[in-house]
Design goal:
The chain has 328 residues and is α+β, with helices and mostly antiparallel strands. The chain is built from five helices and 21 strands. The chain is globular, with a radius of gyration of 37 Å.
């Protein structure tokens, strides 16, 4: 056991002793099989001097014999001791507390030395592609013009919006048919997902995927078939949840660039009649003079030789089309 010098200079100055007054007991403690260095500060009203390693003699702070001293010392250290005495603290060996939280790391990482968990290597984020409107979007999220088409890659969409910071939005190459927006009427606003837009705000909502997620969270595919069809749409390089039902503002972006989109669809042999008809991911609300509430989806539909963004004809039970979009 390491001796500490008495801190009270009035007590046998210059002699090594174990002071049980306001001092630090140093020792190496073995706790649950591990050696812990744990300095313990224990205030006491007496001191006992160590004399030749065998007996204790009285000090000016009180009297205690060797047996009493050793008993007191053992009471202090017994909860921590299972062998020898030490002087430091050991870091936790709990893997989760140390940041090892993954069961495995397919792309490499570091395994916790105290268990089976891993800390995975952070994956590098690839810069977003710099695409132009009308370009082909490929399954690897790169894009080219039709003139520079890469025949080794798989086209999955046509870019209709370019984000100034890279990336953008693209329209799927397929139009899905035979879907209803809703199969059960909503008599109150709370009975439908909160994706409402006012008539004058059709062109302000661009949150296609946020709206779609609200709808699929609100109900299953039997109640909201159109949103689920877009949500479950997949292509090479994409999975369920990557594609979305376009918002009403997104429909306006598509219409602004319809000529460039049509040219690319034809180049890819993906053109079909009325290619832009689709439900949006928005609802709008109106009421009658009698106070009846009408909740209808916003659609992009054809009227003569034009496309218009408006509420769907008839009612919410209309069977229509789904043209998924993707953000990349």
């Amino acid at each position: 056991m390491k001796k500490v010098r008495e801190t009270d200079e009035s007590l046998n100055k210059g002699r090594d002793s174990f002071c049980l007054g306001e001092c630090v007991l140093e020792g190496r403690f073995r706790f649950r099989g591990e050696i812990l260095n744990m300095p313990q500060r224990k205030p006491h009203s007496f001191a006992a001097e160590w004399n030749s390693g065998k007996t204790c003699s009285p000090s000016s702070r009180g009297e205690v014999n060797g047996a009493a001293f050793m008993m007191t010392l053992m009471l202090l250290i017994t909860p921590f001791m299972a062998g020898e005495v030490s002087a430091q603290c050991v870091a936790t060996q709990d893997c989760a507390s140390l940041g090892y939280t993954e069961a495995s790391c397919p792309n490499g990482g570091i395994k916790c030395p105290f268990g089976t968990m891993w800390s995975c290597k952070a994956e590098a984020t690839a810069p977003k592609a710099n695409c132009e409107v009308g370009w082909i979007l490929y399954s690897d999220k790169t894009c080219t013009s039709t003139e520079n088409r890469d025949i080794t890659k798989t086209p999955i969409g046509v870019v209709f919006y370019k984000n100034p910071n890279g990336g953008g939005m693209a329209l799927a190459l397929k139009k899905l048919s035979g879907y209803k927006w809703l199969t059960e009427n909503c008599s109150t606003l709370d009975e439908c997902p909160s994706v409402y837009v006012n008539y004058g705000e059709f062109y302000n909502d661009f949150d296609s995927c946020g709206n779609t997620q609200k709808i699929v969270d609100f109900g299953d595919a039997s109640r909201f078939p159109a949103a689920w069809a877009a949500h479950n749409y997949t292509t090479a390089g994409t999975k369920a949840g990557d594609w979305c039902l376009p918002s009403s503002g997104t429909l306006d972006l598509i219409m602004d660039n319809q000529n460039a989109i049509l040219e690319t669809l034809r180049n890819l042999n993906a053109y079909e009649s009325y290619p832009f008809e689709t439900f949006s991911s928005n609802l709008t609300v109106s009421s009658s003079s009698a106070g009846d509430l009408y909740i209808d989806p916003v659609c992009l539909s054809r009227s003569g030789s034009y496309y218009i963004i408006s509420t769907c004809d008839n009612n919410i039970y209309t069977i229509g089309y789904v043209r998924p979009v993707i953000e990349f």
